[in-house]
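Lab notebook: predicted structure, single chain.

Context: the supervisor wants predicted structures on file for every construct in the current expression panel, including those that have not yet been purified. This is the next one on the list. No modifications to the sequence; it matches the entry in the shared construct table.
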Amino acid sequence: MTEISRVVVPIDFSSNTDKVVEYGLSIADKLGAQVLFFHVINNFQGYDMMLMHPSFLGMTKDLELKAEEHMAALVKEYAQREGGATGNVIVGDAADEIISYAKLEKADMIIIGTHGVKGIEKILIGSTADRVIKKAPCPVLVFNPYT
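Prediction complete. Output recorded below exactly as produced.
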């Protein structure tokens, strides 16, 4: 069995982030693995024709600054754990960036929460977790924080 020493835990700072963090840390602790928290801010590229207003650039920058503050607090809270914890914030497409980050960091596992997207919404926008599962360079553990 492959040793799991680096675990990427994507977080979105939603109301269920604490559950995803707690679950990711509990699994990583059992494995003695380092946790790499990761947050992606949507860059709105898919909406270029509708959102050409310059205010969206400012909004993205504001979101990035706020996310970096939250990430710094989260990493500080768990920095003393045995496996260590780091955090990174990036702007882009969530699924693509999670996959790229896992490759870059040579992650052994991704632990990702799901939003439970169903029906027409899943057909139209897809599921980030589903896209990560299909293209990840390592095993993916999907956690449902709604249960």
